[in-house]
């Protein structure tokens, strides 16, 4: 007799285990399900097997090949174009089926007496015999009723609770006569239970049910998969083990080393070529594949570990599944029901919560607590907040589900009845994320002041007047067009402090999120006259008459952003001749290349119109690039120096705040005006705090981040900056080109190299310990200063990425270039040595 093994299933309910494996090839006790089925068929002298394949067919063909090594003859029928269903795939093998044949599902574990079922089929003269079994809960299976002669009289596929009329179910194993296939159409999708069997019932064909004794488990979902493993280990099902039983209840493969101090509680299965470290504890039910390494002091409580996995020292695995080639680092915890996909990495002291699934080739960072499935993004971070708020890939990392939970976590750190202002840019993705965050906030009893789509400087300036405890702004990331950035503000409109960020992260990761009764759900209002309030503060800080009578002509490129709906109204009040480019709102996010093309266009328009200057506004009204009267762009360090020069000319003896890596031209300019320079960490919140805490500050920020005018509000504001430039250019009576020529010549160089997170701390210590203390500044990163000049080098680890930035600064070009090359080589060499496991500084 021949058997048809239905092995085409993709096993979506077993994901992520079946992302790179068809369901019949998922291992049970270190052998594929299909191999256990073949062994069952062999025990009943069925050795000619036709496997029907669809999903990842080569995996099964490569494993079994012609079947000779497994004592059978294998033939394969591949459903090339589309899945044909349970009956359609068997119809596809009709040319090989000229006698009574057996059909068996490729996703179940059983030890039925198939020989008895075949004898029953012959005795009854059946055209079709369904192998049945009795189960406590038949809801997930096809229910069958037979008469006193075992002839099938009724069946129902996967009934609801109210439709259950029997506990006898279809196991997906059938004995059929070849003529029943004539009822099926060729090359069409069709199903045994839905189509063929009801048709045979209607036609009066003899169809019987054989109720089999023994074990059966449909491995259709993760819980059933674990159950089948544990049942096999406990001997509840008769299946062949791949290894010898070295002592009662302990099966161990060849060439496996188990440290003498390791503790094994039977039953335990350990594959070949494994290493079990000192004091590791393997509790009853633990299943370990081939080529697995278990570190010292690891606690394994019934995990299922696939081939090639590495488990670090003191790791704690409880009732979880660790897939092929995955790595679980030191002291990580994988809890009950969690799944780690193939080739994924779980970092040191990370925790994966019960039932959470990690898809293949993902990374969970050291110390991270993962409470939701990691499917779309690449990495689960240990922190939500980066250098400036929460950011991630739009609709992949930052999803509606994530945003609801983040909003609820933030709201849970506030008192019930608190108020929060919420705003966003004009794009649909930002609107979606904002609405989700609002839902989370309201669910924990926080009231919303919804400012809707507006420029971020307006949000910051309004927050103090709204009586709110804080604010949120959602926008496309200014540096990554495929990222969303969510920023949180305090009651002053300043980015929240690290301590507040930690509170929100704690509520999020620990799921310490409150729920309020219906009567306390937050409400939402829409403030009016926002532009008028902002405009009032805007006008108070400008010499309006100077602007009005300046006869200045400026060209402003709004890059299709929301600031294009705001600034033209403000400048119109001052009778300013402003030529507007790209002011219409646009859903599409511009790439960096497109912004550069618009900048070239802006320069051409400025030169053609003989305008005083041009400005390209970006980052939802926070940042800008200037273009002088000749069409040349002014950006980055040059823009920082230009703004400092102009503001200190207007405000001598004032104070400016710049990030740690700004060029030394700032100090040279400040000396001309008897002014003070404060340097801060390269973080927006630090700049804002420094501006807010020092009353004499007239300007803060940089060309990269934007500029802060503390008397207006504590955030970056490109819109006010443009108006202020018009005023200062008029009162100082110099063009941008002339002002540019007055900037001290300083050579400022930078580069970025990759640096793994685990090396960053050692690199910073290396920098500190290999330079004289008198030459080192530790504002942010490690800055090494030349004792006799304004030259310096700064090594600055990136706060959000595994990168390190190197800056050099000098009045001598050769010094800046040579020093950058020297430190880049030196740091790359140090990183490589650390990754090779060279001695630490303490050991040298």
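-> sequence recovered:
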């Amino acid at each position: 007799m021949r058997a048809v093994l239905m092995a085409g299933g993709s096993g979506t309910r077993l994901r992520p285990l079946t992302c790179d494996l068809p369901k019949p090839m998922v291992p049970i006790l270190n052998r594929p399900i299909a191999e256990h089925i073949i062994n069952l068929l062999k025990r009943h002298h069925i050795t000619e097997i036709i496997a029907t394949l669809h999903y990842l067919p080569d995996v099964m063909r490569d494993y079994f090949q012609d079947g000779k090594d497994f004592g059978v003859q294998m033939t394969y029928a591949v459903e090339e174009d589309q899945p044909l269903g349970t009956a359609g795939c068997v119809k596809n093998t009709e040319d090989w089926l000229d006698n009574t044949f057996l059909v068996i599902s490729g996703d179940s574990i059983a030890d039925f007496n198939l020989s008895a079922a075949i004898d029953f089929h012959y005795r009854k003269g059946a055209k079709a015999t369904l192998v049945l079994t009795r189960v406590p809960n038949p809801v997930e299976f096809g229910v069958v009723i037979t008469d006193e002669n075992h002839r099938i009289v009724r069946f129902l596929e996967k009934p609801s609770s109210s439709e259950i009329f029997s506990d006898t179910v279809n196991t997906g194993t059938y004995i059929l006569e070849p003529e029943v296939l004539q009822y099926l159409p060729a090359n069409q999708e069709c199903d045994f239970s839905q189509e063929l069997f009801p048709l045979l019932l209607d036609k009066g064909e003899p169809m019987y049910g054989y109720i089999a004794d023994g074990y059966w488990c449909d491995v259709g979902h993760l819980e059933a998969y674990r159950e089948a493993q544990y049942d096999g280990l406990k001997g509840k099902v008769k299946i062949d083990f791949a290894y010898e039983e070295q002592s009662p209840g302990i099966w161990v493969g060849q060439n496996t080393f188990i440290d003498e101090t390791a503790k094994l509680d039977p039953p335990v299965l350990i594959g070949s070529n494994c290493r079990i470290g000192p004091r590791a504890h393997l509790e009853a039910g633990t299943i370990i594949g081939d080529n697995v390494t278990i570190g010292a002091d690891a606690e394994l409580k019934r995990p299922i570990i696939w081939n090639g996995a590495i488990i670090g020292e003191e790791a704690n695995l409880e009732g979880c599944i660790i897939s092929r080639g995955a790595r679980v680092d030191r002291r990580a915890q994988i809890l009950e029901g969690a799944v780690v996909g193939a080739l994924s990495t779980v970092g040191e002291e990370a925790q994966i919560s019960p039932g959470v699934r990690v898809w293949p080739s993902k990374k969970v960072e050291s110390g991270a607590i993962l409470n939701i499935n990691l499917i779309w993004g690449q990495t689960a971070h240990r922190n939500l907040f980066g250098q400036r708020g929460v950011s991630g890939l739009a609709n992949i990392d930052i999803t509606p589900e994530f945003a609801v939970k983040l909003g609820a976590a933030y709201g849970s750190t506030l008192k019930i009845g608190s108020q929060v202002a919420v705003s966003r840019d004009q794009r649909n993705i930002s609107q979606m994320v904002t609405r989700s965050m609002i839902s989370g906030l309201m669910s924990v009893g926080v009231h919303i002041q919804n400012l809707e789509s507006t420029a971020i400087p307006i949000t910051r300036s309004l927050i103090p007047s709204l009586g709110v405890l804080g604010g949120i702004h959602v926008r496309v990331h200014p540096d990554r067009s495929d990222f969303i950035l969510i920023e949180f503000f305090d009651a002053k409109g300043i980015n929240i402090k690290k301590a507040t960020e930690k509170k929100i992260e704690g509520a999020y990761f620990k799921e310490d999120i409150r729920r309020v009764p219906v009567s306390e759900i937050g409400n939402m209002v829409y403030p009016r006259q926002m532009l008028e309030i902002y405009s009032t503060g805007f006008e108070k800080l400008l010499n309006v008459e100077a602007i009005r009578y300046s006869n200045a002509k400026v060209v402003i490129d709004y890059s299709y952003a929301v600031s294009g709906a705001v600034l033209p109204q403000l400048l119109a009040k001052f009778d300013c001749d402003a030529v507007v480019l790209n002011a219409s709102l646009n859903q599409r996010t511009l790439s960096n290349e497109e912004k550069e093309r618009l900048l070239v266009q802006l320069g051409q328009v400025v030169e053609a119109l003989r305008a005083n200057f041009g400005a390209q506004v970006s980052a939802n009204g926070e940042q800008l690039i200037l273009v002088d009267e000749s069409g040349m762009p002014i950006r980055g360090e040059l823009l920082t120096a230009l703004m400092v020069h102009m503001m200190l000319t207007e405000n001598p003896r004032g104070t400016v705040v710049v990030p740690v890596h700004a060029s030394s031209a700032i100090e040279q300019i400040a000396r001309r005006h008897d002014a003070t320079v404060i340097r801060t960490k390269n973080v927006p919140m630090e700049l804002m705090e420094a501006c807010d805490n020092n009353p004499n500050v007239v300007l803060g920020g940089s060309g990269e981040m934007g500029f802060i005018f503390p008397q207006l509000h504590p955030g970056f504001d490109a819109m006010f900056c443009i108006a202020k430039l018009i005023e200062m250019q008029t009162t100082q009576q110099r063009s941008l080109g002339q002002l540019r020529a007055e900037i001290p010549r300083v050579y400022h160089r930078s580069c970025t190299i990759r640096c793994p997170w685990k090396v960053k701390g050692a690199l910073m210590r290396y920098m500190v310990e290999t330079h004289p203390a008198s030459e080192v500044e530790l504002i942010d990163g490690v800055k090494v200063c030349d004792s006799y000049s304004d030259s310096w080098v700064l090594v600055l680890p990136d706060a959000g990425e595994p990168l390190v930035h190197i800056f050099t600064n000098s009045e001598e070009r050769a010094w800046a270039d040579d020093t950058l090359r020297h430190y880049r080589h030196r740091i790359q060499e140090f990183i490589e040595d650390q990754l090779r496991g060279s001695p630490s500084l303490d050991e040298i």
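The longest helix spans residues 813-836.
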